[in-house]
Amino acid sequence: MKTGTEIMGKIRNRHKRRDAFQLLFLILVFFLMALLGTIFSTIPVNNPGLASAVASLQTESGVESPVTAVLLNFRGYDTLLEVMVLLLAVIGVWSLIKAPAPDPETEISPVQMGVVRLLAPVMCLVAAYLVWQGSHLAGGAFQGGAILGAAGVLLLVSELPWLRTVPASVLRFGLVLGPLCFIGTALGCLFLGGELLAYPEGTAGWLILFIETACALSIGLTLALLFAGGRPHENVSRGDIP
Amino acid sequence: MFQADTPAWIIAPVVLPLIAGLFCFLFKRRIFIIALAAALANFFVACFLIYQFLVFGSMRCYIGGWQPPLGITLRADGPALLMLLMTAVTGLAVTLYARGYFSCRIADSERAGRHQRQQRYFWPLWMLLLAGLNGLFLSGDIFNLYVTLELVAISAASLAALSGKPASQRASFRYLLISLLGSLTYLLGVVFLYRTCGVLDLDLLRNLSGNGAGVRAALALLTVGLLLKTALVPLHFWLPPAHANALAPVSVILSALVVKGSFYLLFRFWFELFSPIVTQAGLNFMGALGAVAIIWGAVQAIRQQRLKLMVAYSTVSQLGYLFVAFPLSRAVEGAQVWSIVIFIALTHACAKSAMFMVAGSIYLHLGHDRIRDLAGVRASLPVTVFAYGIAGVSLMGLPPSGAFIAKWMLLSSSLVSGQWWWALVIVAGSLLAMVYVFRVMSRFFVIPEGEPLKKPAALSPLLEWPALILALISLSLGLLAPWILHILSQGTVGLVRVFPGGLS
Lengths: 242, 504
Description:
The complex is a heterodimer.
Chain A: H1 4-42, H2 51-57, H3 66-74, H4 76-96, H5 110-133, H6 141-157, H7 162-165, H8 168-193, H9 204-228
Helix pairs in contact in A: 3-4, 4-8, 4-9, 5-6, 5-9, 6-9, 8-9
Chain B: H1 12-26, H2 31-56, E1 59-62, E2 73-76, H3 78-107, H4 112-138, H5 142-160, H6 166-197, H7 202-208, H8 213-230, H9 239-245, H10 248-273, H11 280-303, H12 307-324, H13 334-366, H14 377-380, H15 382-396, H16 402-416, H17 420-445, H18 461-476, H19 481-489
Antiparallel strand pairs in B: 1-2
Helix pairs in contact in B: 1-2, 1-4, 2-3, 2-4, 3-4, 3-10, 3-13, 3-18, 4-5, 4-10, 5-6, 5-10, 6-8, 6-9, 8-10, 9-10, 9-12, 10-13, 11-12, 11-17, 12-13, 12-17, 13-15, 13-16, 13-18, 13-19, 15-17, 15-18, 16-17
């Protein structure tokens, strides 16, 4: 028979041992970081990277912001796949759990409602502005999408049941919209110009804006749905798959 | 516009499954038709790309028309195309098998809803994983490779969690964390390389990478990141639970394809990008880890009580052979080292998919996969047991499987170069593989006393035949060897030449 104190002592010992192990691990990680930092600082920076190449081709990219030019023109293929990764995150979460059902009893206080009414439209406006601004300054689909996502989260934490009122098929369509527009444009360029994502002469700016707008909507929805934390409750009455 | 020699064909294996994945997610019905169409198209495109490669030589596609260093290049050379074909063939078989598997599960009315949901999410995840893998094999840009690694890692972890059992969720969460750790380590390596060289294109990097500390640090980081994903001993701990607890079609995908992706990158980095700074000591170290993996994985496989875990540990063991090729690379002709790893990878992909399919079918038939209680399965699932036997022959490396050719080349080169200890490990690994394969095989043929002979069970042909066909492919790879060597010998400049003396 073991007494309670003995067991407690054992547990404490185990904790201590783990602490020592963690400390050792931390020290090792610290030294590794120090080593990597030293190596990194000793690398002679005698190459300009790709900045000069970007700058020299800036005029051909159709946008004035170098970041947008790299993201959506020079390395648009990377961004296409990254957008897919975001979509994958939602599919993965949806495959695992249902979204927690909101409590129908909750009453929204008028103050909170007022704040939401004030903020949500402003956030949508800021998001649209950021996407528009992406062509010449810092901004773009990801920044705009983040603001849109924040607006969605604001509605969610205010217990506004927008997730339940929007049909799941519309949510799916919203999620796929950005990637689909992106890949559709890319394929359109392939069939018109012979190269994937090679925007035809003079249309690059508008096509980039189109892709960015669609992607911003999808990214915003993605972030909000990730916050909601699960697949929506689908209507199962018509023989659909739940 | 689209001539046979247009390089733009290279993007088809990425774009087709990507679109199919989007539609599989968007639609509710006929998802299987979309996925099957994409898998078939992917297979035909892979065959076409090989034809194009043989006629017109190695192809390069500059996406968006931007040349490196600015743009991203996709390249189709011998090894990349063979891996692409491996993915396409296995992927087609998995698609068919998954259809049979889910139909069989959904027919069981008790949990039909759950299985329908699993199927609903399986297809988009699998299609996006396929796109990621194809992108990984074809990409010629070190940062784009990181993005494809992410695509593969996230879809693979989601697939592994699909079965919904607590054990599989724990295992796949660990798998996700390990995968992300590997990806981030890889990304840190890319940062070092970019800081040193200022370019991201693999061909340009090969010319620029000198012998500085930055490049060495990058090599170390890239290697550790990819080893985590490839699950080489001692970094293999996450693999058996994640692979064994997943749904059967998912186990096939994870074990046959996903680990090959990161290995392929690792091999390319060591033998192309960093070949000037790789030392014999480093190669020996990788070989030693591989040797430990062969023995340790096989011993663990022998000790397992469940069929799926046994097959998963067998993956740990078989991955070791890929690394034993590292130290012998300098002892062989330039051509051979690629042909060795390609033969091992192709054989293992086909044989291991067949084995996991067999394990899944047996689980569906019996409701368990305890090796002890598998007696008499031969009578009820003859085709499946036949597939198991043939896949087992390939895993052991008996002729005429592709693994036999690879092991033969490994053995002869280790003996010729006087590094006999590798030969010892390879022979021991093959004997141990024989033990774990026959341990299960013998149970299949035991008919318990007093029980009547069971009639063949009515399993869907989609559950039995893909496994058998894959097993037969893995067995006949040895007979196709000249053709595969011919593909490898074309165009991969500086590394691959046909090895002159045949198999002598």
